[in-house]
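Here is one chain, start to finish.
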Amino acid sequence: HIFQRTEALHGRIERLKFKVTQLDSNIEEVTIQDVNNRKPFVSITRIDQQVVNSSNKSCA
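Its structure:
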């Protein structure tokens, strides 16, 4: 399960890296309002920690 999540995250990072390298600051302007209106990044660290914790408990 953790391996799958790691692979999915790696894929997202690679796609984001590609998009960032394609940006042209001379063409694409972003206003402060646009930045504030974007959905914030939601970390799922707690879910991953729960998976690890429950795996550790079952092995003990």
